[in-house]
Amino acid sequence: MSLLPVGDDITACLLQRAVHEATTRLYLLFEDSDSSLSKQLLCRIGKALSVVAAERPCLDVVPLLHWAGWSNEKVAALPDLTTLLQHETPPPTSARLCEALQQARPANMSKLNIAQLHCTPQYGQQAGDLFERSLAPAQAADYNFEHVAVGGTFDRLHAGHRMLLAATALACTLHVYIGLTSDQLLQKKQHRELLQSYDDRRSAAISYMQAVRPGLHISGGALTDPKEPTAAATEEGMQALVVSEETVPGAAAINQDRGRRGFAELTIIVVDTMGSTRSGAGGDKLSSTLLRAHEFGS
């Protein structure tokens, strides 16, 4: 597995190269001085995962934050981490972080390899700073809640799913409730024979959030009836709901339901919808349906 330090000066070109260099998992260690999920950081993570969506949408990319339980010592001790990725002429912050991880590597583990990345002309169209036009206002309030809900199908985890799940894990300090669409409700999905089972989808989503934020308590259940209220509506102690842009109307309906019950409204955390520029995808919204169709036709 590989790790790429992500500072304010990272370029899309470098991230593209890292995405293609990675094998099965790529860790992105964000350099962030905050202690919770700011809107600026959410924008940074979204911008990074949009590059992943365009290049290798199903690559397992995990954002790591020091304040979310990932000290240099814990990162350096990851048993599956073998390689640090950096530019052939790394900026000082990246070089210092790579050196710190090497020094923190446990003595009984092999030294981390250093792979230098070179941005060739084919990647030059995105040579500017990745984050230069993606930042939210610095004064925006942070997302920091004890109880957060998220829902979805989560078939074939892709960059869009990972954005939703990472935002959920980073916004939550105690307990996440995840609702997953039951197998029964997916019978009319296109290429349903390629759908992962409920248990596999649930396991993958929970494992990913725990990779982003170790120690997070996660529970959940199957969404079996679209007419029935979800836990986000019926649990009075729920504080926030993470949704994609296309499901904002559903989030508003949940808050209306909570209002009828006399509960406080949820804070709605909206993440950007990911696009895909893969061959044959036509730049459409990245989705599991699109990926199943691609697999069916391959």
Automatic annotation (TrEMBL):
Segments forming domain Cytidyltransferase-like: 150-292
InterPro entries per UniProt: Cyt_trans-like, Rossmann-like_a/b/a_fold
A Pfam family: CTP_transf_like
Source domain of life: Eukaryota
GO molecular function: dephospho-CoA kinase activity
GO biological process: coenzyme A biosynthetic process
Protein name: Cytidyltransferase-like domain-containing protein
Species this chain originates from: Symbiochloris irregularis
Organism classification: Eukaryota, Viridiplantae, Chlorophyta, core chlorophytes, Trebouxiophyceae
